[in-house]
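Reviewers asked in the last cycle whether our approach scales beyond single polypeptides. To address this, we selected a multi-component target totalling 677 residues and predicted its structure end to end. The input consisted of the following lines:
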Amino acid sequence: MAVVAGGAAVNEVIVVGSGATGAIAAQTLVERGFDVLMLDGGQRDDHYRKLIPDLDFVEIRSRVQEQNRFFLGDRFEGLPQDAVSTGAQLTPPRQFITAQVDRFLPVDSQTFSPMESLALGGLGSGWGLGCCVFSDGELAQAGLSPQPMREAYQLIASRIGISGEDDDARPYTSAHIGGVQPPVPMDPTAQVIYRRYLHNRQRLRKNSFAVGRPALALLTEPKDGRGATALHDMDFYSDRERAAWRPWIGVEALRQKSNFEYRDNLLVTSFEENGGFTTVRALDMITLQHRTFTCRKLVLAAGALGSARIVLRSFGERKRLPFLCNAYSYLPCLVPSRIGKQPPRKNSGFAQLALFYDREAQGEGIAMGSLYSYRSLMLYRLLAETPLGYKPARQLMRYLVPALLILGIHHPQSPSPGKSIELIADPHAPTSDRLSIEYALTPQESQRIARCEDQFSRAMLTLGAVPVKRVHPPAGSSIHYAGTLPFGETGERFTLAADGRLNGTQTVFVADGSGFRYLPAKGLTLSLMANAHVVATAIPRDGAGR
Amino acid sequence: MSISVEAQVLGRYLLGKPIDARSAALYEQALRSRSVVPCGVRDQNILEFALAHPWAIGCLDAALALFGPRGAALRRKLLVMTAVLEVRPEYSDLYLTQSDLPAPLLSLPVIVVKEAVKAAGGWLLLRVVLR
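The resulting structure, written as structure tokens, was:
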């Protein structure tokens, strides 16, 4: 670390954020020999992790007296205040993911409910582990170059460990990726669906559907000191084996390196370039005092919304930025042949099957469905959604839950005028501002989404599952955000150059999804990490920037 | 009515038998952490009637679930008790499907029909309570 005049330390690179993109960018930079300082919110769970025994879900439920502490929470924070939207509530051990967000990342919106994070590992700490590769067409639309991204996909997969299957879903999930571990066993209800797919494969393929196992960042064989999944069906509460890759695992490994330093409880607010150095301003989340750090290169990996906030403050310009978020809906479905059947003891809470509705050749993009079984998120969350008294609802759900599959559908998204963000003044906020978000689908988008959902419903019927209803949670529920600083060739401020450099700066790079000009429906995280690696690989070592 | 008595009333409705002291204590803790306050006089009246007349809870629960209003205090308290009982090992067999359940084609329609009858009765009862 160098020293400037006045004695301030100059860091070679500062990386902002410890989520999936920050962790990967930092690792790439550290491996390239850069000295890296990571500034991060760093919220974590030091409480519930220790309480959860190394037993499977059924055994815990049957034997452990203190299970209320982590299933409901010590402050009963796991109980919904109002009616529950299934899957929307974080379990108590995971609520650290959104700790302090209301205070430090305030949002103003009537039409959008984002989920952001100041946690160690960011939103990656709650990632569903689904891994997908974008097609060349999708990469080009997003503003990404296929060749380096393909290489990056392989490298990231080798770093984090991926399991999956070589089936009809593979072209969308782990195409061209080697070293994929075997998939987790499928639960019996998903097996019914998959057998029906194989029986009706020709018809479904003709209707643009491909079904198969998802690729998951979940180990089924030990790797690099991490264990294989124990299939305890406690995935939303704990992971003793560290079988699920989480960004904090990457950050923890980096902290053993001499050229990496991590500092938490810091919210980076802005930067300023000054003659070859960049001053980074951060708010201490405990004392609320501002602190400054100096670096030669700055890498923003605070997420599309977080990085946009930093850039808007830094450029000092009131401007509305574009914004992308995959529309999301879910269909609870029942598989009649599984009603009243005993679920397997060993199971995974992650997606059992992936469905791809491929209309790319027709110019409509590829929509993605993920099928989940339901058990470990507790019955009471479901009971509140039924039009029945709680006592008979419980009796009914014991029959229905083994037959229940939840199909979550993501839709691709392009920019449009109704989707934008802006920073507005808020003297009460610690940062003196809040993010105003407008989000509205065009009529054409809404119609396309409705048609697509109709197709998924028909496909589920063909697969032997009866959709019960369509649920449209609030906009923002996909937790896939991008496009606030889109890649652009004009060099305009608030856009990114092809190598991730923030136009209008010499030393600032953006490694998260802010640059994506188009947001495919497929699971985003693997592509975010691949892009982060590509950006970090391209950062020059010279002291004067580009 | 004290919360511990309220816990017994709601627990007995949900389980069909008295609940243990630990479950009642957890319910009390839950309400202290996440208080359930009736939304207005009508909601208060429904809650008080239900707690004073435990025989009516099933009908009122059914009617409120089907006809609303959504967010009724009685329903919210029942949700809290349902969640508390679900995390008690003593009652886990009432929530988990630990073996194949018998005769779903018979059992499910019976549950639904009984519930529909209760909902109709509860709807009439609500008219009386809120008169």
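Residues 443-462 of chain A form the longest helix (20 residues). We regard this as preliminary and will revisit it once experimental data from Aim 1 are available.
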